[in-house]
Design a protein that fits this description.
By secondary structure, this protein is of the alpha/beta class. The chain has 3 domains: 89 residues, MurE/MurF, N-terminal domain (Udp-n-acetylmuramoylalanyl-d-glutamate--2,6- Diaminopimelate Ligase, Chain: A, domain 1, 3-Layer(aba) Sandwich), CATH 3.40.1390; 227 residues, UDP-N-acetylmuramoyl-L-alanine:D-glutamate ligase, CATH 3.40.1190; 159 residues, Protein-Tyrosine Phosphatase, Chain A (Alpha-Beta Complex). The strands form 5 sheets. An 11-stranded mixed β-sheet has the order 10-9-8-11-7-12-13-14-15-16-17, sandwiched between helices. A 6-stranded mixed β-sheet has the order 18-19-23-20-21-22, with helices on both faces. Strand 9 and strand 10 form a beta hairpin. Helix 12 runs parallel beside helix 13. The longest helix has 18 residues. The N and C termini lie far apart (73 Å). 48% of the residues are buried. The N terminus is likely disordered.
């Protein structure tokens, strides 16, 4: 374990013994120029950390890295490299500690707020970031859609960045005088120790539903990965409507409270919304927090967004953000790109784009929109390739139980045949009577759905959300922005209506 404040990485070279001061090693004094676990990034004088993955084990390249100029290697087993190897029980964890030290422990200079869960992370984190900004704080944001350092926006590569990138980003935020960092914390980020020794002032658990089982294997493993966040936080805000949330609340020992949507006297929640009214124009609800009830109107719609807003306000109150600041933000904020986002068309029906890409997320999105749909609810969705195939028929069943019509298409097929993915999805429609169409071309699928929509209908485009690309074979990213596809479809529909 690396502890103590180490000189920041702005000093080009650091003594190896200083960086590793708490590891009891007889290594000779050497200058080092950085820390990496990537063989492609190694430069002379760097410390190389050997990490084993699904397809590559850094231990196999340790000797080669020394030949290329590495100052030393950190490994989990004796590689016979003498005084140029450092043994660690867990090199992933050691890498997190080393990166934190190399960048001067920026995680200690700011208040960290973490949000984890299957669905709702992006909206909850972004709402809280906006509330803090409105309260006059300089805030950093790390999430799925983008990273932010105050008003500077950076592209998001991973929801939770890889270890070295994470601490490099935190260092930039600290140097830019950010006071608070709000971040989405993924199960991968936790399980792979990407966040190193970072400790959180508050952490939110939104929910846990089937996703990423191609990586975690079981829901229990998935849960245990998420749970890791709550062993390193001071205050936990847990969704009391979620079964895994109830379990988590009973298992953790930090200060904690539950939040959620109250549907009856049996619901025992510390902070809750009730008397909810949804429309495509916005949402009203009563919020009870610390014994005080107030009426809330927000521009966002969807029952899940009510839950996200309650979570953000619960953390905001803990951080001392005035109620008026939070409620005024909700009055104006239209939502996160690709999260129940209304795409304007000037047509007589509504088109909504949402990132829902799990059975639970799709079900919740459609249920929320069902409550504010005058006409029919038409769902357009697909499933990603090279990912958990078991959820494909479940997506279909979730949609069939709520929507009036389905158009099944491609999402990010990656290296799989889109038609075979669609066949997996269709298995979930066996025994149902819902009308559906299949169209692997997503642009054409969107047009088909919109062409059949009538006055008062709602067309939901699920799965892509904020993404403006489609991933096909070989990892190729093709430009695909659903807002542009909707605009093109609307033009075709207007032209067809003029001709008829």
């Amino acid at each position: 374990m690396i502890t103590g404040r180490i000189r920041p990485a702005t000093e080009k070279n650091m003594k190896l013994y200083a960086l590793l001061e708490t590891l009891q090693t007889a290594l000779p004094d050497r200058e080092i120029t950085g820390v990496t676990d990537d063989t492609r990034e190694l430069k002379p004088g760097m410390l190389f950390v050997c990490i084993g993955g699904a397809h590559f084990d850094g231990h196999d390249k340790a000797a080669e890295m020394l030949e290329k100029g590495a100052a030393a290697v950190v490994c989990e087993r004796d590689l016979g490299l003498g005084d140029r190897q450092i043994l660690a029980e867990n090199t992933r964890k050691a890498f997190g500690d080393l990166c934190a030290a190399w960048y001067g422990h920026p995680e200690r200079e700011m208040q960290l707020i973490g949000v984890t869960g299957t669905n709702g992370k992006t909206t909850t984190a972004t709402l809280l970031k906006e509330m803090l900004k409105r309260a006059g704080k300089k805030v950093g944001l790390i999430g799925t859609v983008q990273y932010e350092i105050g008003d500077e926006v950076l592209p998001s590569v991973n929801t939770t960045p890889l270890t070295d990138a994470f601490f490099a980003l935190l260092r930039k935020m600290a140097d830019a005088h950010c006071e608070t960092v709000v971040m989405e914390v993924s199960s991968f980020g936790l399980e792979q120790y990407r966040i190193g020794p970072a400790h959180f002032a508050a952490a939110v658990f939104t929910n846990l539903t089937q996703d990423h089982l191609d990586i975690h294997g079981t829901m229990e493993n998935y849960y245990q990965a998420k749970r890791m966040l709550f062993d390193r936080c001071d205050f936990a805000v847990v969704n009391g409507n979620d079964d895994y949330g109830k379990r988590l609340f009973g298992e953790i020992s930090c200060r904690k409270c539950t939040y959620g949507i109250r549907t009856g006297e049996a619901d025992v929640l510390d902070v809750y919304a009730e008397n909810i009214s949804l429309s495509t124009e916005g949402t009203t609800f009563s919020l009870t927090m610390h014994g005080k009830t107030q009426e809330i109107f927000m521009r966002m719609t969807g029952m899940f967004n009510v839950s996200n807003a309650v979570a953000a306000m619960t953390v905001g109150a803990e951080l001392g953000i005035p109620d008026t600041v939070m409620t005024e933000l909700l009055l104006e904020y239209t939502g996160v790109r690709g999260r129940c986002e209304v795409i304007p068309t000037a047509l007589d029906f509504t088109v909504i784009c949402d990132y829902a890409h799990t059975p639970d997320a799709l079900e919740k999105t459609l249920l929320s929109l069902r409550e504010c749909t005058v006409g029919r609810l038409i769902a357009v969705f697909g499933c990603g390739g090279n990912r958990d195939a078991a959820k494909r028929p479940k997506m279909a069943r979730a949609a069939a139980n709520i929507a009036d019509m389905l158009v099944i298409t491609s999402d990010n097929p990656r290296d799989e045949d889109p038609l075979l993915i669609i066949q997996d999805i269709l298995a979930g429609l066996e025994g149902t009577e819902i009308p559906y169409q299949t169209e692997p071309d997503r642009a054409e699928a969107i047009y088909l759905a919109m062409a059949q929509a009538k006055t008062g209908d709602v067309v939901v485009l699920a799965g892509k959300g904020h993404e403006d690309y489609q991933i096909i074979a070989g990892g190729v990213h093709l430009h695909m922005d659903e807002r542009e596809l909707v605009a093109d479809a609307a033009k075709r529909i207007f032209a067809e209506r003029l001709q008829s």
